[in-house]
Amino acid sequence: MSSASPAEEIDEAKEREHFRAVVTAFKYYKLCSLDRIHKSEKIISILPQNHQRRLEKYKTYLAKFKKCLDMNNSVVHLIIKDVNTMFENVDHSVTDPSGTNGVESFGCNYNNCEIASQKQHKMQHDVEKVQSVLKNIVRDWSDMGAEERKQCYKPILDEMEERFSLDEYSDRSQIRVLVPGAGLGRLAWEVAARGYTCQGNEFSLFMLFASNFILNRCTEINKYTVHPWVHQYVNNITCEHQLISARFPDVCPSGNRPNHNFSMTAGDFLKVYTEADEWSCVATCFFIDCAPNVIEFIERIYTILQPGGYWINLGPLLYHYSDMPTENSIEPPYDILLEIIRDIGFDILKEQTGVKTKYAQNPNSMMQHEYDSVFFVCRKPYCM
Amino acid sequence: MSSASPAEEIDEAKEREHFRAVVTAFKYYKLCSLDRIHKSEKIISILPQNHQRRLEKYKTYLAKFKKCLDMNNSVVHLIIKDVNTMFENVDHSVTDPSGTNGVESFGCNYNNCEIASQKQHKMQHDVEKVQSVLKNIVRDWSDMGAEERKQCYKPILDEMEERFSLDEYSDRSQIRVLVPGAGLGRLAWEVAARGYTCQGNEFSLFMLFASNFILNRCTEINKYTVHPWVHQYVNNITCEHQLISARFPDVCPSGNRPNHNFSMTAGDFLKVYTEADEWSCVATCFFIDCAPNVIEFIERIYTILQPGGYWINLGPLLYHYSDMPTENSIEPPYDILLEIIRDIGFDILKEQTGVKTKYAQNPNSMMQHEYDSVFFVCRKPYCM
Questions:
Q1: Around Cβ B206, how many Cβ atoms within 10 Å?
Q2: A372, B89, B135, B219 — which has fewest CB within 10 A?
């Protein structure tokens, strides 16, 4: 049946394994998050009696956090409910070879403590990504995220409206916009909602699972609830802030969406998009620093844009692969990046530094992160 | 000669070992920091030719960063120059048992790759602390840090002036102020400069080595130069920002200081300060969340204050030991902390949230951290 080469088969097996690992992380979300609460309870239980007494009220909150985990877990389960068939080309609904269906014990066994500990560490890391998905739901699809979206998405959307004004382009569906690093899909959805044809592309399965749920299964406004900050144990003014809930989706993405002009793709931007002169506009938000080699991203954006097409970018230069021992990351600062963009052939039409932007920030936290992002608009010339 | 018990001897041996490890980290500062530049150069050298060409200018900056490391290394060497005799009770000027004097190779040897890699990891972690000392020098002792000091230290100093006004207390040297978590000593020095008798206490040898140099060896204003941001490779608008230098000290701490009323102690706050009713005032800045158990800190501050004495605090609740696997950290939020403070016996005279404060922030970075700190003033009552 299959004519795949051995190398392709290995790739496919690796992909299936990764898929299962991500599903498992969603399944373990509650158990791992609950472990953190149990740890706090245990620590308090071995304190001197008078310290325990002074933490009585705090202990009642730890109990409340467990209820928030239950709420979050309902959403987490909805997210992975139909992921096995979410991709048109692959069915992942195979039996879990461990046969444990996500209830395997992570306790240390006698024979191999070190491997068990490594496995637990990896699981915790993955569960933190699930926790971060919950925060991204708030950023992209809740009223609470409106301010962040205004900072990050509005400059891009305004620019698009300016570059492709209704006077000049009466049929906006002819304008093909690509949003790489689409995350939970709100920016791409907003672009499509304005009438442009828009495709979002995302690499992370954590994000793809959640965006699949929101974009395809959420048919009612504010039907679901998450407690996005329940995992933040430090820098709280009050435990009440840790309990705060957010409803989603603030709009009805599947109901309102003009399906014919909106799509999402899964996979590595550099592998998925190779066709030259295909897109009218590429919009990147908190994306270009996700490449080990940012030059490859810029070159590819140049290639896939139609002559006269626009690249609109907003975000910092965090360079996510910097200082990862196994990655060959390069980290050119903004001024050198601009020279590279020009050198590749773009005309830089607009550029601005110091654009205040937040990313999934807990508004009540005593620790606040803010990016002084850069915003720029480039054009691929009609002829070189 | 020694009448120490075996347990005390073990403690002393561990302390000596730690002392040597910290000295070694200072010695390896340049080598490890240089390694990071070499890594970038190597990554660029294996890129495609046209990418290498596009990074030519960036490569010239990597070369300039090396010169900054040399400048920093001169300061780093001055800092450890006389540390062997800095403590009155212990002479650490013993021969390094490895006999390598800080030029040992961290390359992987054939017999024990894993240990070599762990050792390298630990060294890198320690060298990052040296890099952070350089940033703390800017915070505490340079013109560039003036804004941060205004945010963090001024509210505390103003409060002290208000609580111990010159009308009531004409001889301020009778007022004994303790600053636990004194870091590089600027706040404690400022307190002493206002005439109060002040003692700073610090646990970290990294900080103690640097404060010893600044407080006891710096006799000339702005004599030395550091490049505090040269180790930040991401979120730069331009490489020029990575090159920025700061001169220090902005004041002459050893020359101007009224020596008789200012001192610094080394060691764990809970071990060093056990005497009841000793201090007129305890001032804590970015300190109380450095305890695994913050209640112990509050109880101890209460104990050591004279009846009628003040505790002035400013900082966030980052809880530095949170989620460290080996530590029993508790993380009560601010409102619960206030209840504990009252329960211990303090009268809360003043309290404020949302006090904007930064900590060793690179002003040009595209990523900005800001704390919404809490500020409060408590008093130990005259009678219970």
A1: 21
A2: B89
Give the dihedral sign, CA B345/B349/B353/B359.
Answer: negative
* Nearest CA among B206, B186, B201 for reference residue B272: B201
Token pair 């500020």 is found at B375
Asked whether the predicted pLDDT for residue B93 surpasses 80, the reply is no
- Kindly report the CATH number that applies to the domain delimited by B145-379: 3.40.50.150
Q: What is A146-203+267-379's CATH number, 3.40.50.150, 3.20.20.140, 2.40.30.170, 3.30.390.50?
A: 3.40.50.150
pLDDT digits (tens, 9 = 90+) for B250-267: 999 876 555 679 999 999
> Which chain A residues are within 8 Å of B57, Cβ to Cβ?
336, 339
Question: In the prediction, which pLDDT does A112 show?
Answer: 52
Q: Is B101 or A340 the better-scoring residue by pLDDT? A: A340
Q: What is the C-alpha R_g of chain A?
A: 23
Size of interface A-B (CB pairs under 8 A): 158
Distance from CA of B21 to the nearest CA of A (A): 23
Nearest CA-CA distance, residue A344 and chain B, Å:
9
More confident residue, B78 or B84: B78
CA B307 remoteness from chain centre:
30
Quick: pLDDT tens for A58-112: 999 999 999 999 999 999 999 999 898 887 666 676 544 443 333 333 333 334 5
Are B317 and A353 an interchain contact pair (Cβ–Cβ within 8 Å)? no
Angle at A311 between CA A308 and CA A317, to 5 degrees: 155
Q: Do A236 and B317 touch (CB under 8 A)?
A: yes
Please report the ipTM that was assigned to this predicted complex. Answer: 0.92
Distances (CA, A) of B157 to A178, B96, B193, B207, B310: 55, 43, 11, 22, 13
Q: A147: which residues sit within 8 A by CB, 6+ positions away? A: A358
Q: Where are the domains of chain B?
A: 6-125, 145-379
What's CA A253's distance to the chain center, in Å?
17
Would strands B176-180 and B279-285 be described as parallel, antiparallel, or unpaired? parallel
